[in-house]
Amino acid sequence: MNTHTRKETEATNTQGVPEKRVETVDYKSSPGQGQEMRRVVVIHQSNHHDNSTTSGGILAGAAASVASTLEFAKDVISGK
């Protein structure tokens, strides 16, 4: 991986969960096609949620992660 294409930030999301965002580049190729490059964001979240051992806690954490990812994608697209 080219280190110039990777950016890491650590913060706490709106639900108070610590997370690390890694902006990087994904390379993909298909038979008969050239190599395709696209920017991607990977979010790592801690599993220390309240009530994380129940399905409700797990689903709440997953929903928070999706909401956070969508908000970040919106900011990236709009250039913020």
In one word, what is the shape?
elongated
Span from first to last CA? 25 Å
Strand content: 35-45%
Largest sheet properties: 3 strands, antiparallel
Total strands: 3
What does this structure look like?
With 80 residues, the protein is α+β, with helices and mostly antiparallel strands. It has one domain. 30% of the residues lie in helices and 36% in strands. It has one helix at 55-78; strands at 7-12, 18-29, 35-45. The chain is elongated, with a radius of gyration of 16 Å. Residues 1-35 are annotated as: Disordered. Residues 1-10 have a biased composition (Basic and acidic residues).
What would the keywords be for this entry?
80 residues, alpha+beta, 1 helix, 3-stranded antiparallel β-sheet
Fold blueprint:
Blueprint: E1 7-12, E2 18-29, E3 35-45, H1 55-78
Antiparallel strand pairs: 1-2, 2-3
Biased composition (Basic and acidic residues): 1-10
Region (Disordered): 1-35
Put the structure in a nutshell.
This protein has 80 residues and is an alpha+beta fold. It contains one helix and three strands, in the order βββα.
